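Lab notebook, bench 4. Still working through the backlog of constructs that have no structural model yet. Next entry is a single chain of 215 residues. Request: give me the C-alpha cells for it.
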Amino acid sequence: MDAEPRRVVVVGDCPLIRLGIVQLITGEPDLRLVAAVSSVDELDEHPVDAGTAVLNLRLSTFELARAVSRLCTRGHGVVVVSAAAHIDLAPAIRAGARGCLDSQAEQAEVLAAVRSVAAGETYVPGPLAVHLIVTPLHLTDREREILGRVASGDTDREIALLLGISEHTVHSHLDRLRDKVGGRRRADLTRFAIEHSLVPPTPGLGRYTHPARGE
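Model written out:
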C-alpha cells in the first residue's frame, strides 16, 4: 500500500517564487499541496491540518522568527527559504525552523529539504550550516549589560539610571536585542540572558533600588 503523500503549505509574499515552489511541489507524487498563501495571517484565515510549511517572506530577522514560531505552534514543520543575505537565520532556527535554504537553491535541494522536514529531520545545507556555526550571535558589552539588567527584573528607567544613559537609549538597545534574539517579549530576553549566563551573579550587581521605594 502506498504511503499517504506528505502535506505541504507554501507561505510566500513573492508571487513568482511562490508559484515556482507550488509548481515544484505539485509535480511530486509523494507530496500534496494543501495551501499557498502570501502570509501567515492569510493561512490563519483558512487553517489547514499540520504539514510542512515552506516559508519565503521578506521580513526582518525578528519578524521572520515570529512567523516561524506561529507556524510551529500550529504543528507545521518549517523550511525557511531566504533571499536576503543580511538576514540572520539563527533566530528562525531557535524559533523552531527545521530547514533553511537560500532562494538560489536548486529544485532537487528544495525537495530534499521538504522531504527531510516532513520526515521529522532537519535540513541545512553545508554553506548555511557553516555560517550558522561560525557566526554566533554577537552582542556588544552594553547589550550584555542591559540583558543582564532585564533578567534581574529592572525596569527601563532603572536600567537607564544604573548605567547612566537615557531611557531612549535603553529602548534603542532593547529593540536591537529583540531583533537579534528573535523574541519580542521581555520574558524572551530574560530566558536568553539566563541561558547565556548574562544575569549579574553577585548581590553587589543586583537590582537597582530606587530611593523612593524605601528599600
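Notes after review: The chain has two domains: 6-134, 141-213. The mean pLDDT is 82. Flag for follow-up if needed.
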